[in-house]
Design brief:
The chain contains three helices and 20 strands. With 289 residues, the chain is mainly β. β6 and β7 form a beta hairpin.
Length: 289
């Protein structure tokens, strides 16, 4: 077996392999998937000399621990967290050299939810439909990490960056989501649209890679009944029967029957990946049809 590999010592609460996702397959019922905080994943890749589409590890809340079979260069970005190599502190947000057999520990997030670990050469699990991403909804791609799993690594192609600091936004204290109303805003009362943009919402602990669920006032429907299933896009704000908005994230279903009151602009979605439960959420109209 090749020595270009990582052994999983501690898998963490939920650690998955992610890249830029498998776009272009929604007509087959396949979600896009991919890193929820795409800028953080791209930064980690850049720090170790990988192309932007190389596969990385996305951790959730409490990190993970890995042991390389050969010396590797890694970088951790996203949610700030302690990084150690054989229990010695190592920098977050910068390239780190990890000797063969050493224990790389990515600790719990100090703020935010998801950290990203890139390794020079990328995680080289077998791609499915052109992507190495784990899709929790459809089950495509590699399974979430488990203790004892071995992850193959790709060949080294680039030179890692040499930097002292990197610009990267911190996790939000308030999540402000710019939205475009529609396509089914006419299924809601005028007061519901006002409530969406003036009401006090918070991130629910039931949120996951499929959607960011909210707690707060219900949105009143003007049209009863349900829609035939129709296409859903990344960032769609779907309103289920309880009336509380759900923002669809990377592993969202490609179709749905609950009405979509608005769509979040793509540039605001990375912050949604880092919003911890209880974070205030504010919806702001940025463009009307």
């Amino acid at each position: 077996m090749t020595d270009r590999a990582l052994s999983v010592v501690r898998a963490g609460a939920l650690t998955t392999v992610q890249d830029q996702g498998r776009a272009g397959h929604a007509h087959l019922g396949v979600p896009r998937s991919g890193a929820l905080d795409a800028p953080a994943a791209a930064l980690a890749n850049r720090l170790v000399g990988n192309p932007a589409d190389a596969a990385v590890l996305e951790t959730t809340l409490n990190g993970c621990a890995l042991r390389p079979r050969s010396a590797v260069t890694v970088a951790v970005t996203g949610a700030p967290c302690p990084v150690t190599v054989d229990r010695r502190p190592a920098p977050w947000g910068a390239p780190v050299r990890v000797p063969a057999g050493a224990l790389l520990d990515i600790g719990p997030a100090r703020a935010g939810v998801r950290s990203y670990m890139a390794v020079a050469g990328g995680v080289a699990v077998e791609p499915v439909l052109g992507s190495r991403s784990t899709d929790l909804l459809s089950g495509l791609g590699p399974p979430p990490l488990a203790n004892g799993m071995v992850l193959p690594l790709g060949h080294l192609d680039g030179v890692h960056a040499r930097v002292d600091v990197v610009p990267h936004p911190g996790p939000p204290s308030e999540l402000v989501l710019g939205v475009t109303p529609g396509p089914r805003d006419d299924w809601f009362t005028a007061s519901a649209l006002r409530t969406l943009t003036t009401g006090t919402y918070r991130v629910s602990s039931a949120s996951n890679r499929i959607g960011l669920r909210t707690e707060g006032p219900s949105l009143e429907r003007a049209v009863s009944g349900e829609l035939p299933s129709e296409g859903m896009v990344l960032g769609a704000v779907q309103v289920p029967p309880d009336g509380r908005p759900v923002v669809f994230l990377a592993d969202h279903p490609t179709t749905g029957g609950y009405p979509v009151i608005a769509v979040v602009r793509a540039t605001d979605l990375p912050a949604a990946a880092q919003a911890v439960p209880g974070t205030p959420v504010r919806f702001m109209v940025v463009r009307r049809r």
